[in-house]
């Protein structure tokens, strides 16, 4: 993905830094149509975490989205001119579905990933939602499914005095870390006995 040549330099550099992201092999990122009414400039990527291995039809463990917004005039709620918005959905293992601490744990995935990636961010906020679905009739799949949804947004803090000198690579890496954690993937370079959701 590349930003239009007519886009502000800040936005173009932000898009380039995120488009250059190379996540671990289990994570697939694709360009997608961004929201049109949240900011004058926007870009978006969809994400899937697939089960490790050579299975010809790997299982999708986690899905997500990363949206970049830019308003050259800034927005008061953002405390800046750029905003990153993320969404992550993971199916819960039955033993985790009723854990009362799960929302706090899921939120810590994000805050921990931002900290570990060295991201400077402000105005961090979001929600963690647990949903339960029961299938009836001829719909395929398990009869009872519990999902966790993490929605979050934050404002990247510019590095240095030049607001156009934007590199959001660390922020993109934090997003992929949240995806991997939600899927229960082991750290890169560590062998797995089989990924478990929310393991």
Automatic annotation (TrEMBL):
Listed Pfam families: DUF3000
Query: What InterPro entries does the database record attribute to this sequence?
Result: DUF3000
- Please indicate which superkingdom the organism of origin belongs to: Bacteria
What's the name of the protein?
DUF3000 domain-containing protein
Give the originating organism. Answer: Actinomycetospora aurantiaca
């Amino acid at each position: 993905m590349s930003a239009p040549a007519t886009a502000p330099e800040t936005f173009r550099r932000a898009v380039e830094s995120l488009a250059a992201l190379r996540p671990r092999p289990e994570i697939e990122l694709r360009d997608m149509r961004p929201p049109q009414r949240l900011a004058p400039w926007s870009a978006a990527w969809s994400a899937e975490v697939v089960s490790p291995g050579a299975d010809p039809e790997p299982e999708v463990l986690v899905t997500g989205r990363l949206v970049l917004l830019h308003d050259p005039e800034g927005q008061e709620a953002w405390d800046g001119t750029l905003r990153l918005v993320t969404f992550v959905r993971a199916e819960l293992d039955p033993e985790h579905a009723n854990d009362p601490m799960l929302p706090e744990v899921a939120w810590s995935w994000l805050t921990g990933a931002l900290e570990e990636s060295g991201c400077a961010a402000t105005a961090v906020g979001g929600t963690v939602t647990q949903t339960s679905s029961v299938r009836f009739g001829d719909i395929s799949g398990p009869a009872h499914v519990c999902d966790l949804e993490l929605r979050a947004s934050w404002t990247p803090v510019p590095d240095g005095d030049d607001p156009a000198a934007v590199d959001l690579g660390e922020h993109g890496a934090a997003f992929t870390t949240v995806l991997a954690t939600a899927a229960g993937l082991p750290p890169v370079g560590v062998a797995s006995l089989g990924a478990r959701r929310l393991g």
